[in-house]
Amino acid sequence: MRYSSFRFPILIVLCCIQLAGCRLPQAFLTYREKPPYPTQNIETLTAEAEASAANQKWHTALTRYEQALMLKPDDEKLLAAFEQTRSQRDIHITKLQNRLYLLQATVLSDEISLLEEMAEADPTNLHIRQQLKSAKAKQGELYYFLLQCADNAVVLKRSQRGLACLHLANKLPYHTADEERIASLKKQLTQIATQEQQEALAARAPVKPLQAERLAEQAEQRQQENQQSKKAANNVKQLSKLQERFSLALQRQDFLSAQSLFSEIEKMAPNDPDLKKQRKALKQQTQYYVQAQTQKGIELYSTGYPEQALETWKPLLKLSPKSQELHNHIDRAKRFLKKLNQLQKDNHDDITIQ
Fold first, then answer.
1. What is the DSSP letter of 333?
2. How many CB atoms lie within 10 A of CB 88?
3. What residues contact 162, with CB distance under 8 A and at least 6 apart?
4. Distance (Å, rounded) from C-alpha 309 to C-alpha 303?
5. For the residues of 235-264, what is the DSSP string, one character each?
6. What is the pLDDT of residues 219-274, one digit of tens each?
7. What's the CA gap between 73 and 7, in Å, rounded?
8. 196 within 8 A of 188, measured Cβ to Cβ
């Protein structure tokens, strides 16, 4: 009798749950049967994607292309547009990253000085020490970015930007190891700046009458210089795109593409001092990947998955074709699978005869 007052509400709740349980699956199925965009077709989605890409709304553009590909997955033009938009998105992110590096470099030295003073005042503060360690670890990455910025400024004849990058690089502790390179870049940028000032003064000065032949020679010379400048600028842009694609390939662990892109970079800029470091980074990351995947295949093979192990090992031969260890693992897996298939065939034949 003490629970009689609760019986009626409990019965009502149970009835509601039962009714909801009967109706919910039908409602859910009805909702799932509706198409995601009943009023939009491929043309509308493609137009929205192109407009979003033009306004650098990359997420919206890629989403619209994906929705269009769901309606027509084998359309080569749609696939090409999707891949091109994704590549433009990645390049845009890389440019923003470069701007972020430049912004970080302008304040990094002051930030480290302040953190060092704070750490000296309170050496037991772990948070301050961690911030100082993170800021110092960032120095090397920013330093090489600033040197590359100065190199590009020389090619593009942007003296102010190049000198600003060198000024920031000189504030970092690594500059003593590249004094000759920094001095050479500073000299070239100073000459470019002087030439720019002379051209600006010449443009303001009154033009004296010259002979027609002299004018024609100067016009032809300027035209040749402009063509050379355009060619150099195009090479820089192409090299910059190759560098960006190379970095993305490394991030995605697509080492075959990274090796191909690095070969193109070597052909375009054989005298680039950073090629040695990039070659070393590519070789190390490739070796680490091959070792990790080889070990993964060994674990699969030892736990009774020889086919999966073979599928893991085979692609590695393109990255390390001379690896005797890989060849041994693959040969062993093939022999095992061959014997296993023969045993299964023999057992099948015995069952059939019986």
1. H
2. 14
3. 149, 150, 152, 153, 154, 185, 189, 192
4. 10
5. HHHHHHHHHHHHHHHHHTT-HHHHHHHHHH
6. 778 888 777 777 777 777 787 888 888 888 878 888 888 888 888 888 887 877 77
7. 58
8. no
Q: Which residues contact 244 (CB under 8 A, 6 or more apart)?
A: 90, 91, 94
User: Which tokens go with 227?
Assistant: 């063509």
Q: Which amino acid is at 145?
A: F
Which residue has 């629970």 as its token pair? 3
- What ranges in the chain are assigned the alpha helix state H? 4-32, 42-54, 58-71, 76-121, 126-156, 159-170, 179-204, 212-251, 255-268, 275-302, 306-313, 316-319, 324-353
- Closest by CA to 138, choosing from 161, 183, 170, 107, is 107
The set of long-range contacts for 90-96, using a CB threshold of 8 Å and a minimum separation of 24, is 90/244, 90/248, 91/241, 91/244, 92/56, 92/58, 94/244, 94/247
The alpha carbon torsion through 174, 175, 178, 179 (nearest 10 deg) reads -150
Alpha carbons 36 and 18: distance in angstroms, whole number: 30
Query: Tokens 């990359």 identify what position?
Result: 58
Residue with tokens 């004018």: 215
State the number of CA atoms in the 13 A half-sphere of 212 facing the CB.
0
> For the chain, how far is it from start to end, CA to CA, in angstroms?
73
Provide the 3-class DSSP secondary structure of residue 116.
Answer: helix
Please state, as a whole number, how many other Cβ atoms lie within 10 Å of the Cβ of residue 335: 11
Give me the amino acid identity at 192. I
Amino acid (1-letter code) at residue 228: Q
- Single-letter amino acid, residue 142: L
pLDDT in tens, 144-201: 788 788 888 888 888 888 888 878 877 777 656 677 888 888 888 888 888 888 887 7
Q: Is 254 exposed, middle or buried (0-12, 13-18, 19+ CB in 10 A)?
A: middle
pLDDT tens digits, 47-65 = 999 999 999 999 999 999 8
The label of the residue with tokens 């100065």 reads 150
